[in-house]
Predict the structure.
Amino acid sequence: MRFLLLVSVSAIWILSPIAVLADAIVEGRVNLPKSHAPPPVMAKRYEIVTNGGVLATKPPLAVVYLDGSFPTPTSHSIKQVAQKDLAFLPPLLPVQIGTTVEFPNLDDTYHNIFSYSPAKRFDLGRYRPEERPIPSVVFDVAGLVTLRCDIHEHMRGLILVLNTPYFVITDESGRFRLSGLPAGHYTLKAWIDSKTTREQPVELKSGATLRTDFP
Amino acid sequence: MMLVVLVLTALALYFAQRNVTTTAERDLRENFQAEISSLHKVQALRNSALTERCRELVLKPRLHAALEDNALDLLYPTAKDELRDLMEGVAPGKGEGANSLQARFYRFLSGSGAIIPPPNPTEVGQLSREAEAQLALKRLPDTQQIGYVLETADTIDGTMNEVMALPILSTETGEVISALVVGFKPYEVVDKSEGTGLKSGIWVNGRLHLPSLPKSAELKIENDIAYAVSKPDGAQNSFNVTVDGVPQLLFYKHLNPGSLFPPAYEICVYSLANSIAQQRRLSWQIGGAGALLLLLGFVASHFIAARLSVPVEKLAVDSEKNRAHWREAEAALASTSEELERSARYSADASHQLKSPVTVLRAGLDNLLNREGFKPEVYHELSGLLHQTYRLTGVIDDLLLLSRLDAGHLQIDSKPVNLSQLINEWIDDLNALPDSPEIKIEQELPAEIFVAGEKRYTSLIVQNLLENARKYNRLGGCIRVAARRDNAEVVLTVGNTGRPIAQTAQQHIFERFHRGAPVSNISGHGLGLNLARELARLHGGDLRLLRSDNDWTEFEVRFRVARPSLRRAAEVV
């Protein structure tokens, strides 16, 4: 119950505009790679898979974000990546630089979350579900962070650390909508997998909705 | 006897020796194999344990994270934690781990098979540059590889390291992204008791590492092994070597066939000194026992021979004498037999040769007698000559019969003969003779009495006796013939009056060509009695002179009685 609450809170937080003045909207569709696998049976919506050394979500999803230099938020935001059923949940988490991510253990076993990724190296050590405070890491460098568990070698999670507060995960068909954006010339980027990020320049006007697709 | 003892002892010694040698060789081989196989078992156990530990290590997510998440700088620090257990107790300068399952060093290989240099070599087990270079492979291995690396930097002898390279497979791509190379102290049997038992070592890159062997021996064996392993046959073999004058059985086995590391051979050396000493000791024991046995044998044989030789020598002398006697007797017998045969043959030949001319003579005389025109005295003369030819024929017939008797060729066809009838016929004939003197013939004969014999010869016996009785009779004398049964025999006696046979001559009357008295007017040729006796004997009976004195001479013949069944058959006929 608490978990659902957390997810919904974070979803609201992602979708709500940070800057009150920014009210531009961009929406469109990212052309995602075709997925031949049947939809997962389990309740979770997607997972992280590796294919030829490339990490991506399955079914394919993209993170669309507005690149640029934005001021670091003054308020400290906290997000969570839980370990549930020997998997990371959510498997892919985009965060703005400076975000603290908590790693609650929701399984009945030990987990040892660590990352050797250049963007953030950390090792939380082994801990049980009742571990308090919940082990957490502050992500302060932009980049992709691969989450691993030292005990469960198959577990993979991704945290995409971005230097922007404006980002969204597309739905399975690749559609996205970013609102509350500041007006101006920016680069709109679509992270598709660990090796692929597409981008295109956008000119946002206040109060206007820009439609753009990633082919 | 001596020779037999000698040969037996030599044989016993030979077989004992051979048996000992075979047993010793078999024991040695069994010992060797048992030790090697137990060594191999220990090695296999240890290897599987090491492999298991290393396999766990290469699955460690941190190592994978370091390799896959572009964090090579964290590789060795991570490994230091992860391999802590394996490396425990290894401190710089303390290369010898207490436990053979502990590693001496480890390294990671990059994608090209080269060594990923460790940031702090003291933490990963120090190696000389040369030794470290030997850990590199020309490519990353797909499977676990075993190799051997000799570290020569630390001591003169060097240190042999067993190296295990395990591939690290990316959990993301499934490809080999690196390899973990771990070095261990190889499992070697170090012989506690000097100079005996099994020693094991490793030969790699032309160098032998067998610390329990003297250095000089190592160098010598290195070349032998290099030659042996260069031959393509078999991965496992053995040969004999000599180390410091002690023969050793050397066994080698390819340890890492198909490995990317240089080929290495396990070398086991088994000293034959013990076995040879044992064999020598046994040989001495057997030799000593043999010598003792020989000595005892000689004494015993001498003693026995001395005891045995006395009667044997006596026996030899006696038998030599006997043999001489026997030879003499044999020679005498042979000459007698030859003489007899010769005389018999001569008689037979002479008789045959004489018969034909006599027949011719008789025919001629007959012819002349039948001619007319001769004077009467010529006829008388011719008649006398013809009579002589008949006498001659009689002599010849007798001689022929005798010669056949002598040669043993005469066979009688025994049938019942009616003796009474035969005698009566002859008496009739006697009476009918023209010059028969006035002689009275008495006879005491049963009506019929059957004897066993051939009628021809029985008749000849009777004729001879009757003719003699008539010939040697006197005027007005008498002849008495009697026959009677005497159990299984028939006794026939023929007596006659007349001058008796002289006492001295009585014993010779049955000899050939002997005549009882030199009476010129009595015809005869001195064969009759001899022939009659021979024939009587041939019939199973005998002829003898009963008496010859006081104007009475009496002979007795014994015949065998004819068997009744045969007699009845004769009656029917």
Notes: The longest helix of chain B spans residues 273-369. The CA atoms of residues 487 and 499 of chain B lie 33 Å apart. The two ends of chain B are 78 Å apart (CA to CA).
